[in-house]
Amino acid sequence: MSAPPSQQPTPAVPADSRARAAEPARTGSARHGVGFWCVAFAFLVAMAFSTVPTPLYPLYMQADGFSTFTVTVVFAVYAVGVITSLILAGHVSDWVGRKRVLVTALALELVAAVVFLLSSALPALIVGRVVSGLGVGMLTATATAHLHELHSAHRPEASPQRFQIVSTAANIGGLGAGTLVAGCLAQWVDGPLRTPYAVFAGLLVLAIVAVLATPETVELRWGSRPYRPQRVSADHGDRPAYVAAAGAGIAAFSVFGLFTSVAPAFLAGELHRPSRALAGVIVFAVFAAAAAAQTLTGHLRENARQPLGLVLQALGLVVLVIGMRSTSLTAFLVGGIVTGIGSGVLFKDAVGKVVAMAAPDRRGEALAGLFLFSYLGLIVPVLGMGLAMLQLPATTVITWFAAIIIVLLAAIAALGARRQTTAQS
Fold it and tell me: Which residues form the Major facilitator superfamily (MFS) profile domain (predicted)?
């Protein structure tokens, strides 16, 4: 999985207060318009590549004989790579340039693709996932910032709505597209553990060329400031609201972790649906639902977004568990889609609240904290499920997972209600 699903509102992009457009927006140049779509393509390809292994995990398990827990470890090391890169390099494009960071990130994804092509053994799978995570951590915030700046330069008077829709589609839509393409290729072409990576290696090369042809949008300031890792803080004026947003991030990312790690193996095992294409389609449907929900709820009242996300995610988890216990593929799919919608809305609201509460010069710090908590939500529950599945049936483990997440959602709702009561008194 990738950088996490989110709304990318205009103020949320990481930009140093001294960064300025390298090419002023006075002309609305066509180069910036073309560059916008080039970066969107690169963003989409990189995020799609990050989920290519998802529908292939059952094949890796058959080939090397490792367990579901090993799959969760492989998934977790990817998330660790993303977190490490977010903290160490997610912000450096503010002064070294967007293009340099994007090309470096895409090159790391290409290296990961080569690793996957050279070997399907477990050590190679782990190394490839770590490298892929490092690339995604560098790319997500940088690509979002670059898209915003290219859009502003090309259409200086336009609403940011196009930027928000395209960046969301590239980010979350890419996560779903990777599983869909990889699952279909693995189902119907030779070399299921090689061909998907070969296809994406070619697309990554095209993405690098596309970014190289794109205008730079920040002034390069090599050596203008000492390097330091991205600071992370929860102290942004409204600590309870920040805690609630972090909890929402944990809940949303936990669900995405479920579908991009153990769900394909569950489909092949307990539901007796070993089709790689089907696994890809189901994970794609979850992410597509999240992306569509984030896009379509742009005009929803702020105080309505969090309750809607909480209710839909809880409802989706209940339906998901019913589908698992009744071995109903239809209920499992419906539960996944509803859960995806709820998670997308919930995380969009969390990003919006953090952006609104943080001071402009600490916005990157505030978002870094949100993403850090969210990715911990991606790692810890998935590893916990993997460990539990060594002793318990998958259905039992995922039922307990759903129950824990629903309790977390209830706590977030209670915290929100308490804050609202305090504000009115």
Answer: 34-425
Residue 362 pLDDT greater than 80, yes or no:
no
* pLDDT tens column, 90-102: 778 887 888 999 9
Q: What are the φ/ψ torsions at residue 264 (nearest 5 degrees)?
A: -60, -40
Which 3 state secondary structure label does DSSP give 183? helix
Quick one: CA dihedral 21, 23, 25, 26, positive or negative? positive
Question: What are the pLDDT digits (tens) for 58-74?
Answer: 899 888 888 888 988 99
Cα–Cα distance for residue pair 251/152, rounded to 1 Å: 33
Encoded tokens for 392? 């318990």
Average confidence score pLDDT of the chain: 85
* Helix/strand/coil percent split, the chain, to 5: 75, 0, 25
DSSP output for 51-105: TTTGGGHHHHHHHH---HHHHHHHHHHHHHHHHHHHHHHTTTHHHH-HHHHHHHH
Task: Tell me how far apart the alpha carbons of residues 346 and 248 are, in angstroms, rounded to a whole number.
Answer: 6
The dihedral sign for the CA sequence 216, 46, 253, 76: negative
Residue listed under structure tokens 């049936």: 393
pTM for the predicted model, two decimal places:
0.84
Tens of pLDDT, residue by residue over 122-180, are 999 999 999 999 999 999 888 888 888 898 888 877 777 778 788 888 888 899 999 99
Measured distance CA(377)–CA(385) in Å, rounded: 12
> What does the chain come to in residues?
425
Residue 294 CA to residue 292 CA, distance in Å, equals 5
Nearest to 357 by CA among 236, 215, 199, 210: 236
Domain 30-220+231-418 CATH (choose: 1.10.150.20, 3.90.700.10, 3.30.450.40, 1.20.1250.20): 1.20.1250.20
- Token pair for 270: 């307990």
Phi, psi of 27 (to 5 degrees): -100, -15
Listed in sequence order, the residues at least 6 apart from 119 whose beta carbon sits closer than 8 Å to its beta carbon are none
- Measured CA to CA, the distance from residue 366 to residue 237 in angstroms comes to 11
Question: What are the backbone dihedrals phi and psi of residue 29, each rounded to the nearest 5 degrees, phi first?
Answer: -60, 145
Better-scored residue on pLDDT, 119 or 221: 119
Distance between CA atoms of residues 33 and 26, nearest Å: 13
Three-class DSSP category at 44 = helix
Q: Which amino acid is at 58?
A: P
Q: Which distant-in-sequence residues (6+ apart) come within 8 Å of 206 by Cβ?
A: 41, 45
Q: Which of 106-115, 162-171, 223-232, 394-403 has the lowest mean pLDDT?
A: 223-232
